[in-house]
Amino acid sequence: MKKYEQAEQYIKDKIAAGSYLPGKKIPSEDELMEKLRISRNPVRRALENLAAEGFLYTIQGSGSYVKDSTIPEPVDIYAVLPSDSINLEARIIQGMRAALDDSSYKNIHLILKKPGKDVFEQIEVMNMIPNHRKAGIIFIPIVPPDRAAGRLFAANIRKLERQGLPIIQIDNYLPEYQGSCIMTDHRKAAYEMMDLLFEHGHRKIALLYRNTSKPSIKLRISGVKEWYQDHDIPMTNLVRFNLDTKPVDDEFSASLLASGATAVFSLECELIRDLYINLESRGLEVPGDFSICSFDDHCFTSLRSNFLTAVVQRCDAIGYYAVQLLLDMIEGKTEGKLEMKIASDVIKRKSVGKV
Fold this sequence. Notes:
single chain; 355 residues; alpha/beta; Rossmann fold; six-stranded parallel β-sheet; six-stranded mixed β-sheet; 14 strands
């Protein structure tokens, strides 16, 4: 009998004898190594095999436990949320927890993972997720500007799927990976903001954006372009500022003033915050001299609450439906690529005035 088989039999015998009770933690890997006088690899293989056979289950960072046949098999949901998603994360997690409360499943672990801003860190974190348990992944993809890195990321995601882990993207999507996704209807939300600006008399509009490699930004830009086409208004009325490599400083504000725009629509909240600070330092008033609005408002509330006209994404709904759909995928109730677009709220506040 091989050493890992000896370890398996030892644990099975302890379970059968009632020494290792259902729901209780068994000895650690180190303790089993000492008891059985074998190395770590056979012990680890034995634990993995027993988990796959349904004798044990593992809680990451805690250890292995005897499975109680009267308790539903645990389900692990891994939420991989990058460090730069902190402003959206709380509402996403709130929606996830609400879905867990509403679910008929009663043994679900929501496990939060936070990689850095680098796509390779996200790949590393996702590859460390165990695949021998009933589990799935919800993640906000870090979309690299380099297509080769995107293809590598997509290959790693598909590998995890082949290992039996259902996966759902939220808030954004990786173009090289044709997978399930739940996100804001970015195009429609940008279109609706343009409607609001037009209703207030604005015709010459400055569009600010950065991170043009992100599909969500591209969708927002397409919504603005579509609005101009549908209203038969010349695109010359749209002044585009791509700030991928430029700061929002005095030089930029001078360019904005010279453009003749009466309103600024920022596709990212950070940019409108920086612009507002710069305009104030120059003695300009909002909305007296400029009307401003943005996609999201979470970066602005520390400056002035209840002031910025903004597209407010329903992040809680994204988190809620992501959990619901992932549980269905884990149970095999749904298959294939799933796509869901969540409507946003365009909230009019004091930062947009009439021309």
